[in-house]
Fold this sequence. Notes:
By secondary structure, the chain is mainly α. The protein has seven helices and no strands. It is elongated, with a radius of gyration of 23 Å. Pfam families: TMEM138. It is found in: Cell projection, Cilium; Vacuole membrane.
Amino acid sequence: MFLSCVGESSAALDPSWNHNPPGRPAFGPETLHTSNYSLVLFIQLSLLSFDLFVNSFSELLRKEPAVQLVLFIIQDISILFNLIIILLMLFNTYVFQVGLVALLLDRFRAMLMYSALYLTLSIILHSWIMNLRWLNSNRFIWTDGLQALFVFQRVVAILYYYFYKRTTEYLGDPRLYEDSSWLREVFARARQ
């Protein structure tokens, strides 16, 4: 029994046993499939469009605080889902799988920071608005602090939309999902 286990484990280490072409990982996607990327891109852009819609028109529903609360909750969840989708796409790249996480973090640091900042500002703004408006929706609630937060959240939203869209388009590049000469050079520099 011990010999059969040793034989099985050595077969897994034997290069002739591996049927994958050299230079390709034995796990994960071998290439980026257009249909999968199109579906993910459609979901991401749909969530971004919903977020833009809520940012644009949520104040028109101020007389219905329950509806506005539901929209705010769905908006915050969609921002979180978009962040999770981007992280999963980053984890799925060949660059991540060979251990060059620093390269990805360097490239996408701005998008990750703006996503976290935008989610935080959105939750704070939504909580503040709903707290002031819940009992009396006709009352003027726009204090100086709330107006400043509102403007800051909208400015960060514009930057978030830009960096997020740019990142989704960049992650569609098939070179991130396969072995290439530039990746080998970066890997060699990282090992030194």
